[in-house]
Amino acid sequence: MEVLTLLEITAVLWGTYLVVTWWLERGRLSQLTDKTVLITGCDTGFGNLLAKRLDQLGLRVFAGCLTAAGVAELRQSCSERLQPIRMDVSSSDSVQNAFRVVKETVGNKGLWGLVNNAGINGDMAGPMEWATKEDYQTVLNVNLLGMIDVTKTFLPLLKKSRGRVVNVASAAGRVAVPDAGPYTVSKFGVEAFSDSLRRAMRTFGVKVVIIEPGYFRTEINNKESALRRMDDTWQLQSPETKTEYGEEFLQAGKDGIKASGRFMQDPVAVVDAMAHALCANHPRSRYVIGWDASFIFVPISWLPTELGDLAVRLVAPEMTPTPACCKNKQ
């Protein structure tokens, strides 16, 4: 009887928490036209869609683009409020140039939002053993070190407005996937950096939000590009490694990439979460987006290690095909 009472109290408290949270999250900021936001990685994907969404909502947007083509596309498709700027987050000089442009515009008013969206998969595809140190450096320089550099550079402007930092992590920052080593390592780093920053910035009134998307239809998940990267990575392997893994392993990995397209989701859901994080009175600290992130990756991350490893093998066998040299040992 006492156990039942405890469960009832827990259920009531949990239900109350959910209702209060739902109610708080409904409120939106007034005077959005007074807010200025910087978004990185706006050439394509989430960043491009978010820049256009915020422009439609009336915010002033600085859209960081790596390419001149990205700048031109946004200038053509958005209002004069949106200012595209060339920005390479892996270059401190480029980040400083962007900072000068933004600071000159916002002045003492400060910057309301920073969305660290820029990210890459890198040039390799395949098991972790195939990745070189340079492969890790390339991805970390953009996905993690670039994010840290941009955040530290713009924090003084965010403190002035008691604004918000929105960092794009990934469901792969919850569960390490063996066929995307550099990307996964970078996203685990994003999670750690964001958690630490959120706790450090609370006393300054700066909110830090983590976005954790699953598998969405963006350029970073382009199948043709992934297949090409896997072929290129395979060609760089030594004859010994090719013999050890075998052509069947390579083909199984490519088949997994081809099949993954069936599970891609509409990126609008991620943009909705980003816009809420910037425009809600009470944003969440973490947004888990996508059925795969919510019902596969996050639950697996809660499991004991051995069970989590088993779940990955069962749920996504294409991530862990068996090398030729290991088939007779199973």
Question: Would you give an account of this structure?
Answer:
By secondary structure, the protein is of the alpha/beta class. A seven-stranded parallel sheet has the order 3-2-1-4-5-6-7, sandwiched between helices. The model has no long low-confidence stretch (mean pLDDT 90). The chain contains 13 helices and seven strands. Helix 8 runs antiparallel to helix 10 (247-260) and helix 12 (291-302) packs antiparallel against helix 13 (305-315). It has a single domain (31-329), classed as Rossmann fold (3-Layer(aba) Sandwich), CATH 3.40.50. Helix 3 (68-77) links the parallel strand 2 and strand 3. It is globular, with a radius of gyration of 22 Å. It has helices at residues 2-26, 45-57, 68-77, 92-106, 133-143, 145-161, 181-201, 223-235, 239-245, 247-260, 268-279, 291-302, 305-315; strands at residues 36-39, 60-65, 83-86, 113-116, 164-168, 207-213, 286-289. Helix content is 55%, strand content 10%.
